[in-house]
Structure formats: C-alpha cells, structure tokens
Amino acid sequence: MTTDFAKLEPEFHQAYNELKSSLESSKLFQLQPDLRAALPVVSIPERVIQFRVVWEDDKGELQVNRGYRVQFNSALGPYKGGLRFHPSVNLSILKFLGFEQIFKNALTGLSMGGGKGGSDFDPKGKSDNEIRRFCYAFMRELSRHIGAFTDVPAGDIGVGGREVGYLFGAYKSYRNTWEGVITGKGGSWGGSLIRPEATGFGLVYYVSHMIKYASGGKESFEGKRVAISGSGNVAQYAALKCIELKAKVVSLSDSKGALIAKDADKGFTEEDVALIAKLKLDRQYLNQLYDAEDSFQSRFTYLPGARPWSNVGKVDVALPSATQNEVSEQEAKDLIAAGCKFIAEGSNMGSTQEAIDVYEADRVARKGDGIWYGPAKAANCGGVAVSGLEMAQNSQRVSWTSEQVDQELASIMERCFWDCLNTAKEYYDVAEGELPSLVNGANVSGYIKVARAMHDHGDWWANSKQ
Predict the structure, then answer these.
(1) Whether residues 115 and 258 fall in one domain
(2) Identified catalytic residue from 116, 248, 280, 341
(3) Contacting residues for 430 by C-beta, under 8 A, at least 6 apart
(4) Tens of pLDDT, residues 177-194
(5) C-alpha–C-alpha distance, residues 465 and 159, integer Å
(6) Mean pLDDT in the chain?
(7) Percentages helix, strand, coil for the chain, rounded to the nearest 5?
(8) Any idea which positions bind substrate (predicted)?
(9) Is the residue at 148 inside a domain?
(10) Are 108 and 385 in contact (CB under 8 A)?
(11) For the chain, what is the domain count?
C-alpha cells in the first residue's frame, strides 16, 4: 500500500487503514500469527470490471458514462453489494464500499461475499425513459459478469425500485433467464417484504442492544433524543422505528441543508416522515418542503448547507445516515459536548478516522460515561442481511411474511452485536467499567471469518517456518 496509491484512492485507503489498525492493535496476530498473511490478499479485489455505457437521451443525443463492478471477495459466497448511480462514483469509492462490504456481509452470518458497483450517471433530472435506456445500456455489459451464484447486486444511492426493475428486466432480456440476480426487487416478482425498511430498522435494532447493554438493561430508546442525518431510505426508516420506540427524532438533512426541531421534546412525527418520503421520491430537497409548509416553519429550523451534528443541542443518540465521512473530528467533539452517549452509522464509513479516534478516546477516558460507537459494517448490515434473505426466498421460490423477515432481521442484528462485543472482549484488554470497542470487535470478527474461509480455499497460506 504505497503513498501514491493512497493519494489516488483516499476512501479505499481510509477503510483499509481502519481495518489494519484494529487488527494490529488486537491480540489476533499474537494468538494466530498465520492470519497476518491474509491481509495483503484480502485487500486486493479478485476482479475489477470497468466499462463504458453509451445511451441516448430524449433529444436523441449520444451520452456516455463510466460503469464499474468491483468483485472484491467471494470466500463466503457470491459477490454481494449495491450499485450506486451518482456523479461522485469513482474507483476509489467503489473499492472502499466493496472492501467494507466483505466484512459487513461476514458479520451477518449469511453466505455472501463482498462487492460494489455503479456509474457516474446522475438519475436526477432525467426522464423515466432516459433512466430506462441508461439501465439497459449499463446492464448490457454488466450482465456478462453477474448471476445468482456469481454476483448479486442490489440498489444503493440513485438506484431505487424503478432502477432495479429496469436492470432486472434488462438482465432477463439479455440472458433469457429469470433468476434472483439482483435484490430489492418488487414484491410481485421476487422481492422481499421489509427490504426497503431493513437498513434503517436494523440500525435501530443494533443501537437498542447498545443502549440495553450499557445501561444494564435499565434503558431503551424511549425518551431518547435522536439526531439523524440524511432523508433517504435509511434515514426515513430509522426515524420511523425510533418514533415507534417512543424516541424523539430531532433532525433530518440532505445535501442542501438540515432540519432541526425547535422543540426537542416533540421532534418529527410519522406524518412528517411520510411527507419527506414523498418529497424524495420526487427527487426534491428539504428546503422546498420547508418553504411550502407552514407547519414545518413553525416547528423546525432550516439550516442551509449545514449538517445536524453541531446544531442539534442536547442529544442522546446520533445516527449518521447520509454518506461517507459526514461526521468530522470537530463535529464528534460537539456531539460529545451535547451529551451524546451512542453513535452508530447508517451510512457507510459515516465518520472520518479523526472522528472515530475522538469517539474511542472518549470511550476509554470516561468509561461507561463516554460515547459508544457502532461502526457501519455492523450497525447498518441489516440491509444486506435482508438482501440475503431475499436470495434465500428466491432459491426456494417462496415469499415470507413481514413478521418472518422482521424477526430474522432482529435476530441477525442481535447476533451481530454480541459477535462484535464478545470478539472485542476476547482480543483486547478491556478495563473495569469500560465499554468494549465495537469497531475493533467488528473488524476482527469479520476479518477472521473471511481469512479462515480464504485459507480453506487455498487463497493464501502461512509460511510453516513462522
């Protein structure tokens, strides 16, 4: 991992260095020194596919975009990870997302490898026909490299139900086969109930266990003030689950600004979230809703160009659910000063490394009174977990009830929490009264699962003289 590559791929190297730091600060390589040999192997994708996507806009003019699929690791199952359509998409971002996905998927306990893909195409401002033509052009090449037992993509930023439908239809047309090759499908053609809700719901289930453990079973979400960033799928369903559990959601945001509740004891309602969901379906921004709704102006403050973290006042729980690196070092300090006790990421790599260092230092210094951090690869794995359950339903040609899927999701998140917690206790020295490091536990646990499977497959081997 040279400095030059680190400059070219900053997001990927941030994710790599976080994992490497956790592994090297643990007892893992002392107790199992042979596992060190897997690190340079797992850090290079098995395959990177790059291609051009040529499509025609509504004016009949030729357009061209870049398409990607990073097939990072298949030790535990078919490559699994979303497709992102956004102008910011580049190889560094997709490598970081794919790398994180390896260990996130491992933590679910399901048979899924890790991958990620997408394009620098921007669906915003495009007609349905333009999006359909782009999806068919994109899948023309991608269909050569994916399949139910090879690589199963899903949606991500810019790829919702509409795009998944077009991509699935294109694959079916090109390959002349109906198979569960993409997850997030419509309910009448192979999709799973609870899939849209899964990441947000799973995030809240994970934090519920954090709260219960830290309080010795005395506390829950009830009455907690919860700051959430983002207003897309993850943020919406996290907010709804928090409201259901009688917490007070005090913020939501998008790329143009943040809405902050004026009265933190009231916050957002289910009706507010429904209005925001409709707004986002129409690809509009929160400031447009704020300007149009008197009730929003009376109950919320809109801060253009701002994120919630330094502006929410007293808060108990923070759930970054927008994009990568959305909590800075200073914002982490501001959250701690505001009384935040729990922070868990609904977005991938939602905190900068400097912010994570602040969380972890506070956890060690103030022990049970410090902030406790749940990393994305554990806290937001509910989405891909239900994607795995969708794959299982497709294989069986059955559809499970909402209750079945939700129960499975809750069980997976509970197992993931205890896996992270117990691994941290096993491979790190935890002082009396200190909460174990969930980020270190997640990194070590995910790495062990993947490294051992790779070893069994002959992907790496240890020097017998070590």
Answers:
(1) no
(2) 116
(3) 424, 436
(4) 999 999 999 999 999 999
(5) 50
(6) 95
(7) 50, 15, 35
(8) 80, 101, 104, 155, 387
(9) yes
(10) yes
(11) 2
Q: Which two tokens stand for residue 316?
A: 């108990």
> Each residue of 238-260: b (16+ CB within 10 Å) or e?
bbbbbbebebbbbbbbbeebbbb
Using CA atoms, how far apart are residues 130 and 132, in angstroms rounded to an integer? 5
Question: Cα(159)–Cα(155) distance, rounded to whole angstroms?
Answer: 5
Q: Is the pTM of this model over 0.85?
A: yes
Burial of 361 (C-beta count, 10 Å sphere; 0-12/13-18/19+): middle
Q: Cα(318)–Cα(316) distance, rounded to whole angstroms?
A: 7
Cα distances (angstroms) measured from residue 411 to each of 49, 92, 414: 35, 33, 5
Is position 430 within any domain? no
CATH number of the domain where residue 455 is located: 3.40.50.10860
370-382 pLDDT tens trace: 999 999 999 999 9
- CA 406 vs. chain centroid, Å, equals 18
Tell me the C-alpha to C-alpha distance, in Å, between residue 70 and each of 25, 175, 248, 455.
Answer: 29, 21, 39, 21
Residue with tokens 């997850």: 183
- Point out the annotated binding site for substrate: 80, 101, 104, 155, 387
User: How far is the C-alpha of 239 from the C-alpha of 222, rounded, in Å?
Assistant: 13
As given in the structure block, the two tokens for residue 119 are: 């394009």
Q: If you average pLDDT over residues 70-88, what whole number do you get?
A: 97
**Residues 313-327, mean pLDDT to the nearest whole number:** 96
Q: How far is CA 413 from CA 117, 143, 382, 383, in A?
A: 25, 32, 7, 11
Residues 283 and 361 in one domain: yes
Q: What is the pLDDT of residue 4?
A: 59
Binding positions for NAD(+) are: 199, 233
Residue whose C-alpha is closest to residue 116's, from 152, 87, 168: 152
| Annotated binding-site ranges | 80, 101, 104, 155, 199, 233, 387
Whether 116 sits among the annotated catalytic residues: the reply is yes
Given a cut of 90, is residue 6 above it in pLDDT?
no
Residue 380 covered by a domain: no
